[in-house]
Design brief:
The chain is of the alpha/beta class. Helix content is 50%, strand content 14%. It has a single domain (3-120, 162-231), classed as P-loop containing nucleotide triphosphate hydrolases (Rossmann fold, 3-Layer(aba) Sandwich), CATH 3.40.50. The strands form two sheets. It has a five-stranded parallel sheet with strand order 2-3-1-4-7, with helices on both faces. A two-stranded antiparallel sheet has the order 5-6.
Length: 232
């Protein structure tokens, strides 16, 4: 069974940074609908350009478009050992579609992580946040150029003033119900995202391994010890 992780949390929670790190260290593809859309925008893809208008206003792209993008991406062979999803699902309909896709592919259970950060801290982080205009990577504090590709740093259109507040409202209204959808599952975990990146990373690694072991134990055939039992 693959290690399939959904990294959730409001804008500014740091889930993208942690998803990048975790995927890199575990040798898994990180799948971000934002990255896929940015690539399409550079290629002047009409669907991506229309989606950009919504994103710049702090609104969500429609479910049908996002589900189609993710379905196509998960069909690639590099996802067989697992994957890390960042920015999907954002609605209950997307979550239901993902469950159906996982069942169809016999991909195994989903480990769902909710990175929690107080709203005041989110506003502080988002106001004027800079990203690379070439690859979309969030800028590290004190950097004058992108540490990943050397590109110029710019303020995101959807990180400006009132758009920040609108993005948080959209998240509250549309995405929080997804957490309720997943909350009762044995693979759902909450992580404190208001810590240093190093502490968040350590907590993430611990809870993801614990959730993966719990899911293995729940699905192991009779007489077969779970990964968690094997380690004790």
């Amino acid at each position: 069974m693959g290690l399939n992780v959904i990294m959730m949390g409001p804008p500014g929670a740091g889930k993208g940074t942690q998803a990048d790190r975790f995927a890199r260290e575990r040798g898994l593809p990180k799948i971000s609908t934002g990255d896929i859309l940015r690539e399409g925008i550079k290629e002047q893809n009409p669907v991506a350009l229309e989606a950009k208008k919504l994103m710049d206003r702090g609104e969500l792209v429609d479910d049908a478009t996002i589900i189609a993008i993710v379905r196509d991406r998960l069909a690639r062979s590099d996802t067989r050992p697992g994957f890390v999803l960042d920015g999907f699902p954002r609605t209950v309909d997307q979550a239901v579609a993902l469950d159906a896709l996982m069942k169809e592919r016999a991909q195994g259970p989903l480990v769902v992580i909710d990175v929690v950060v107080p709203e005041q801290e989110l506003v502080r982080r988002l106001d004027g946040r800079r990203i690379c205009d070439k690859c979309g990577t969030n800028a590290e504090p004190g950097k004058s150029e992108c540490s990943k590709c050397g590109g110029a740093l710019v303020v995101r259109a959807d990180d400006d003033g009132q758009v920040v507040l609108e993005r948080l409202k959209v998240y509250e209204r549309a995405t929080k119900p997804v957490l309720d959808y997943y909350r009762g599952r044995p693979t759902f975990r909450i992580v404190n995202g208001a810590q240093s990146q190093e502490r968040v990373a350590h907590e993430l690694d611990t809870v993801i391994d614990d959730a993966a072991a719990a899911s293995a134990g729940a699905t192991a055939p009779a007489g077969v010890p779970s990964q968690k039992a094997a380690r004790t």
